[in-house]
């Protein structure tokens, strides 16, 4: 059985949980990370030298990096509805997944650490203001895309890109910040809330 290593409060671990729910994959879960078993021990570093979660063990195959894991599971289980096999369709999905991991994540990181994690290392008011502004700007980019696509991020069909972006949208709504009234993002959030996997692993009270 697939084994997922990482604490269930991690947004990146929850990407994998939700992907499994959409596909219908049973899995075992082991808690690793802050508050649980340390990822700095030799046992974990042998699986992921970066000491980051999540990691999956699929029989004798080990994989880390959450978006790569989600793509792997879609391909393995032949879920071309979640990750198309046609080059252009797949590229569109992967483009938004990569944008989430690089552009959007970098925008909210400082504000999240300051306001949600209460990190003492993130107490610069100028950097906080810049992070909130950038976070809202990037959600605005998503809002424009959703206005154009009409439903989900790449069109009328739900894909694995909506898994990673859906969790990010939930984090934005859950954060104690002032946010613009993006109508398309709000409608998207409600649309995702019709999915059992999102309610269990996304909109479950965990930022």
In short:
Pfam families: GST_N_2. The chain has 207 residues and is of the alpha+beta class.
Describe this structure in words.
The chain has 207 residues and is of the alpha+beta class. It folds into two domains: 2-76, Glutaredoxin; 87-197, Glutathione S-transferase Yfyf (Class Pi), Chain A, domain 2, CATH 1.20.1050.10. Helix content is 55%, strand content 8%. It has eight helices and four strands, in the order βαβαββαααααα. The protein has a four-stranded mixed sheet, with helices on one face. Strand 3 (55-58) and strand 4 form a beta hairpin. Helix 1 packs parallel to helix 3 (66-76), helix 4 packs antiparallel against helix 5 (125-149) and helix 5 (125-149) crosses helix 7.
CATH domain class of the largest domain: Mainly Alpha
**How many H/I helices?**
8
Please write the string of helix (H) and strand (E) elements.
Answer: EHEHEEHHHHHH
Write down the Rg: 17 Å
Protein topology:
Elements: E1 2-5, H1 11-23, E2 27-30, H2 42-45, E3 55-58, E4 61-64, H3 66-76, H4 87-115, H5 125-149, H6 160-174, H7 183-192, H8 196-201
Parallel strand pairs: 1-2
Antiparallel strand pairs: 1-3, 3-4
Task: Provide the descriptors you would attach to this structure in a database record.
207 residues; Glutaredoxin; Glutathione S-transferase Yfyf (Class Pi), Chain A, domain 2; 4-stranded mixed sheet; 55% helix; globular; transferase activity
């Amino acid at each position: 059985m697939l084994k997922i290593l990482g604490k269930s409060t991690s947004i990146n671990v929850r990407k994998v949980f939700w992907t499994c729910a959409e596909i219908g994959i049973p899995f075992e879960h082991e808690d690793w990370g802050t508050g649980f078993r340390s990822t700095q021990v030799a046992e974990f570093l042998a699986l992921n030298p970066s000491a980051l979660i999540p990691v999956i063990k699929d029989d004798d195959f080990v994989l880390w990096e959450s978006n790569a894991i989600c793509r792997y599971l879609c391909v393995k289980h032949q879920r071309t509805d979640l990750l198309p096999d046609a080059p252009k369709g797949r590229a569109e999905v992967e483009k938004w997944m990569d944008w989430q991991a690089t552009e959007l994540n970098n925008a909210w990181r400082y504000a999240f650490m300051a306001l949600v994690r209460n990190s003492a290392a993130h107490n610069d008011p100028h950097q906080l203001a810049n992070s909130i502004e950038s976070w809202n700007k990037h959600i605005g980019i998503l809002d424009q895309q959703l206005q154009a696509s009409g439903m989900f991020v790449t069109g009328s069909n739900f894909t694995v890109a909506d898994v990673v972006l859906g969790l990010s949208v939930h984090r934005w709504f859950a954060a104690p910040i002032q946010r613009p009234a993006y109508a398309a993002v709000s409608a998207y959030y409600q649309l995702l809330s019709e999915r059992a996997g999102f309610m269990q692993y996304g909109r479950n009270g965990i930022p």
